[in-house]
Automatic annotation (TrEMBL):
<dbReference type="GO" id="GO:0006396">
    <property type="term" value="P:RNA processing"/>
</dbReference>
<dbReference type="InterPro" id="IPR029026">
    <property type="entry name" value="tRNA_m1G_MTases_N"/>
</dbReference>
<keyword id="KW-0489">Methyltransferase</keyword>
<dbReference type="GO" id="GO:0008173">
    <property type="term" value="F:RNA methyltransferase activity"/>
</dbReference>
<feature type="domain" description="tRNA/rRNA methyltransferase SpoU type">
    <location>
        <begin position="195"/>
        <end position="343"/>
    </location>
</feature>
<dbReference type="InterPro" id="IPR001537">
    <property type="entry name" value="SpoU_MeTrfase"/>
</dbReference>
<dbReference type="Pfam" id="PF00588">
    <property type="entry name" value="SpoU_methylase"/>
</dbReference>
<dbReference type="GO" id="GO:0003723">
    <property type="term" value="F:RNA binding"/>
</dbReference>
<dbReference type="InterPro" id="IPR029028">
    <property type="entry name" value="Alpha/beta_knot_MTases"/>
</dbReference>
<keyword id="KW-0808">Transferase</keyword>
<dbReference type="InterPro" id="IPR051259">
    <property type="entry name" value="rRNA_Methyltransferase"/>
</dbReference>
<protein>
    <submittedName>
        <fullName>rRNA methyltransferase 3B</fullName>
    </submittedName>
</protein>
<dbReference type="GO" id="GO:0032259">
    <property type="term" value="P:methylation"/>
</dbReference>
<dbReference type="InterPro" id="IPR029064">
    <property type="entry name" value="Ribosomal_eL30-like_sf"/>
</dbReference>
Length: 352
């Protein structure tokens, strides 16, 4: 019997009912002992270390170098990582801006006894100490000027951004249309209880917040349908606070999702405004009674963009559900509505 499907719309869930991511003047790289060589897939930096160049200074005692020029090739490499999805994929690297997501990823790595989230390079604002939490990690450290940090981060104000890292792309990411396979899909999610499906979510802030919420409420993974923001866009990574490195993230299409849901016997739900007239289906209200009724079932939850809503496939294949609301509000922000759904539908007995 084909699984039921629940789809979620961004213009969210309302009802009149209420219910319970050549050269520089100076190049800085400090090697903190012990330093191990990168295990695999070295980044193809567009510069030629470690020859000293014109304008470069070096402390021969501490072996410290600094980057002060925004035209330094390593800086250009970082900017490309921040701006270009294809460049991130070809280099298998992600730029992580800010100490909080860096620490969250490292903490998760320690807790899971994982060793593959390698920090390839750590950029620290000159005059700033290496964060204590990173002292025991073997990492290449580069001290940079404020202008360089602004260039790399893309921010005008760096008061709260004094550390940036280049990290390996997580093994939990899989693009089924480019280098993935059904076997990889199933290996990342062998027996999921809850799967968040994002349908054309383009805003990086909303996108990252939803992944963060999915991690917080112990959902098993995230599936990205066509039209979604790149999961490693710098703004999306910042909003997710490292959660995109802590959950399996699979990019694919409806055919692949439907085949997976059928094999796993998952019900598919989609959030949709209760009074929307663009679909003949009626939406069930997200009440405690409904939640208790489906608590033991394995679920996919589909959320659509605020601008375009759910795709045609979601409206056709999913079982629609809406959030009871008072007043005349037509919708909720997708990250707000998604947070409510993810909390209410979280697994009752989540795996550790």
């Amino acid at each position: 019997m084909a699984p039921a499907v629940l789809a979620c719309h961004c213009r969210f869930f309302f009802s009149s009912r209420f219910s319970s991511f050549p050269r520089g003047d100076v190049v800085t790289t400090r090697r903190r002992p012990p330093v191990l060589p990168l295990a695999s897939s070295p980044v193809n930096f567009a510069y030629s270390p470690p020859k000293q160049r014109e304008g470069e200074t070096e402390n021969t005692i501490d072996n410290e170098k600094k980057i002060t020029s925004v035209s330094n090739p390593l800086v250009k490499h970082c900017v490309k990582l921040r701006l270009r999805s294809s460049y991130r994929r070809s280099n298998d690297s992600v730029l992580i801006v800010g100490l909080t997501p860096i620490l969250e990823i490292c903490k998760f790595q320690r807790e899971e006894n994982q060793s593959f989230y390698i920090i390839e390079q750590l950029f620290v604002l000159e005059g700033t100490s290496i964060p204590e939490e990173l002292n025991n990690i073997s990492v290449n450290v580069v001290h940079v000027s404020a202008n360089v940090l602004k260039k790399i981060s893309g921010m005008q104000s760096i008061d709260s951004t004094k550390v940036i890292a280049i990290m390996k792309m997580p093994r939990g990411f899989c693009d089924l249309d480019k280098n993935g396979s059904d076997a990889m899909f199933h290996s990342l999610l062998p027996s999921p209880s809850r799967l968040l499906v994002l349908d054309g979510i383009q805003d990086p802030g909303n996108f990252g917040t939803l992944i963060r919420s999915a991690r917080a409420f112990k959902w098993d993974g995230v599936f990205l349908l066509p039209g979604c923001c790149d999961p490693f866009n710098d703004k999306a990574v910042r909003a997710a606070r490292g959660a995109s490195f802590q959950l399996p993230v699979i990019s694919g299409n409806w055919s692949q999702l439907n085949a997976f849901a059928t094999k796993q016997k998952m019900k598919i739900l989609a959030g949709h405004p209760a009074n929307s007239g663009n679909n003949p289906k009626t939406s069930a209200l997200l009440t405690r009674e409904v939640v208790n009724k489906i608590a033991s079932e394995t679920l996919c939850l589909v959320l659509g963009s605020e601008g375009n809503g759910l795709s045609y496939e979601a409206l056709e294949k999913a079982e629609l559900i809406s959030i009871p609301m008072e007043g005349l509000y037509e919708s909720l922000n997708v990250s707000v509505a998604g947070g409510i759904f993810l909390f209410m539908l979280q697994p009752q007995n989540p795996r550790d």
